[in-house]
Design brief:
Largest sheet: 3 strands, antiparallel
Mean pLDDT: 78
Structural class: mainly alpha
Number of helices: 30
Radius of gyration: 32 Å
């Protein structure tokens, strides 16, 4: 380990993970069982984007009220904030396994409530229950996997949780597409989450508690039994001994701090390791959300429609491709996170995300400028009062195009012959939408037909591929390993809360931002947030690949400072190409004469002097001798 720095990780990465789990399948059983929580997390994130399209069709009030749409999406996030905080306390008090079991119960109850909902408020209530479960499992599943994994493959195994999040999102889009023509569409979509929650609940009943948590609770024999199943015989006793020393030190500190909840909280915030861990953990979680990823997941069908694809079915079919890329990116993370490291993958990921967001902003700006014009005569094909009221009362209706029509909360009925030719701006009613489609035309409510729409889809896919291997997985890996054992639930819960608070802010404001700034301006704003996140990750987040938990704690005690922020040591002697120039400069300093005099006594000619003075050890010798000679002369003057 280097000062404030990084230990050397195992270079074998995913290959070592595969070999280890092949020899010890018990490790993979623990990781996959806990990782189902990631599947639930991802499924809930992805399913609402498709379900919302059909909820709006069943409940007109949801279709007409933007705040209700945002509430249905964001109430899970609000519940997750409290679930993460509660999960942190449950993890430290009752253990990781109990926390996952409680989360599964909440998932199951919430899914049933949503499936049988008869009004929007029941959907919101079910989303809150699911939110509690999502918040708890989002920080508990990576923590459980991390504490049950050997250090050299910990990153790859925790990445399984990230992979299952992506698989959950992909599965959500498949189910959304499968139920598009089934009665009760969105009910099946939202209710299906209860099945994996039930499966995980049954699996977790057969699995043990985290061995590190057990050791901390003085259940030493039980912890040792589990550790012997995880580590080979030649490593297990060293791991147990290191864990024993760490736990004893933690208990000694707790004895000084006190036993009450407030005393423990004060002790946590005063602990320099916890402080530095939170700087890193909270930074990566906030940066993850302000990259805009969950707006892409929650509102992705609408974003696809913003790009000019009006069909709900087409929008969700295209999302299968993007969600498949997300899963592919998670597999890439498993290969490289223990080789390249968490920090490097996040920095590269953020730089690529910034490029994609700026590209999306340019594409949507271009699409808005070149949107089809409004042709007043097109409205004559419909009822007399069919034209958008804002268009008829506009001061300059000739300047209107499709985007102007949508901003006025009306609908654009595309030209029958060519969707990019001038069309009609109609009032956004269900009757007029059906009348438009009855004529074989496309009715746009969220985006306009565009020649560059496919570029937006490509950039959206690249954005997800850039996000998934780095910022998608690494923040959860970092937060599962960067806190001391005694504060791991507390630190992980606090960081998860920051993640969900950021998620709530972004998801709650996304539709409003697109209406006020436009889609192009919104993506450009997220690109600006990503630049800030990139700088903060570089400044605050250390590398933890391949380090045992105890080594991570020691590194944070020393303090992390990136190379670019470290003070560079001054060279012993300066070397110039022009030796004669340096010699002339040295002759002008205050003690130059004394140094020159002494140097000439040693090297009689100037050539010998120039030859030797730039050798560091001789330069120091000459300078020191000259200074000593000058001090002797000054002392003689003082004595006189």
């Amino acid at each position: 380990m280097v000062e404030g720095g990084v230990g050397q990780a195992d270079k074998t990465g995913f290959t070592e993970c595969w070999k280890t789990t092949w020899r010890t399948p018990y490790i993979m059983k623990l990781a996959l069982s806990a990782g189902i929580g990631g599947l639930l997390f991802g499924y809930d994130t992805g399913v609402i984007s498709g379900a919302l399209l059909y909820i709006k069709q069943d409940f007109n009030v949801v279709d007409s009220e933007t705040w209700l749409q945002e509430a249905i999406v964001s109430m899970t996030v609000a519940g997750a904030i409290f679930g993460a905080g509660l999960g942190g306390w449950l993890n430290d008090r009752f253990g990781r396994r109990i926390s996952i079991l409680v989360a599964d119960v909440l998932f199951f109850v919430g899914s049933i409530v949503m499936a049988v909902a008869v009004a929007p408020w029941m959907i919101i209530l079910g989303r809150i229950f699911v939110g509690f479960g999502v918040g708890m499992v989002s920080m508990t599943a990576p923590l459980y996997i991390s504490e049950a994994s050997p250090a050299r493959i910990r990153g790859a195994l925790v990445s399984i949780n990230g992979l299952l999040i992506a698989v959950g999102q992909f599965l959500a889009y498949v189910i959304n597409l499968a139920f598009t023509r089934t009665p009760g569409t969105w009910r099946w979509m939202l209710g299906a989450a209860g099945l994996p929650a039930l499966v995980q609940f049954l699996l977790m009943l057969t699995l043990p508690e985290s061995p590190r948590w057990l050791y901390r609770q003085n259940k030493v024999e039980e912890a040792q039994t589990i550790l012997k199943k995880i580590y080979p015989a030649n490593e297990v006793y060293e791991v147990i001994n290191t864990l024993r020393i760490s736990v004893e030190a933690a208990k000694a500190e707790e004895h000084v701090i006190g036993d009450t909840m407030m005393q423990k909280l004060k002790g946590a915030f005063r602990n320099v390791v916890v402080q530095r861990g939170l700087y890193a953990g909270v930074t990566v979680q906030v940066a993850q959300q302000f990259s805009g990823i969950n707006t892409v997941m929650y509102y992705s069908p609408m974003i696809v429609q913003f790009a000019g694809f009006a069909s709900n079915k087409t929008a969700m079919a295209l999302l299968l491709v993007t969600s498949g890329l997300n899963a592919l990116g998670s597999v890439v993370s498993m290969f490289f996170i223990d080789r390249a490291g968490r920090r490097k993958m996040m920095l590269i990921s953020m730089m690529c995300i910034i490029v994609c967001l700026v590209g999306l902003s340019v594409v949507f700006w271009h699409a808005a400028i070149l949107a089809p014009k409004i042709n007043p005569s097109e409205s004559t094909n419909f009822a007399a009062n069919a034209t958008c009221p804002s268009y008829t009362s506009a001061a300059n209706p000739a300047s209107w195009n499709c985007m102007s029509c949508l901003k006025a909360e009306c609908g654009f009925c595309a030209n029958k012959g060519n969707a990019r030719s001038p069309g009609a701006c109609l009032a956004a009613t269900t009757e007029l939408e059906e009348a438009c489609r009855a004529q074989g035309r496309t009715f746009f409510k969220d985006g306009c037909p565009s020649r560059v729409g496919f570029i937006a889809i490509v950039l959206l896919g690249l954005y997800i591929v850039s996000f998934s291997p780095g910022m998608g997985t690494a923040p959860w890996v970092v937060n599962s390993e960067i806190y001391p054992l005694r504060y791991r639930g507390f630190g992980g819960g606090l960081a998860a809360m920051s993640n969900w608070i950021s998620n709530l802010i972004v998801s709650e404001t996304f539709l409003s931002l697109t209406r006020s700034l436009g889609t192009a301006g919104t993506f450009l704003l997220f690109a600006g947030f990503c630049v800030i996140g990139l700088v903060c990750i570089h400044a605050f987040v250390p590398e933890t690949k391949g380090l045992p938990f105890e080594e991570v704690e020691k590194m944070l005690e020393t303090g992390f400072k990136p190379k670019s922020f470290r003070r560079k040591p001054q060279p012993v002697a300066l070397r110039f190409h022009n030796m004669q120039s340096l010699f002339n400069i040295l002759m002008r300093v205050s003690d130059a004469k004394a140094m020159h005099k002494h140097a000439m006594n040693i090297y009689p000619t100037k050539d010998n002097l120039m030859k030797n003075i730039f050798q560091p050890h001789k330069f120091i010798s000459v300078s020191t001798a000259a200074r000593d000679d000058q001090e002797v002369q000054e002392q003689k003057v003082h004595d006189k």
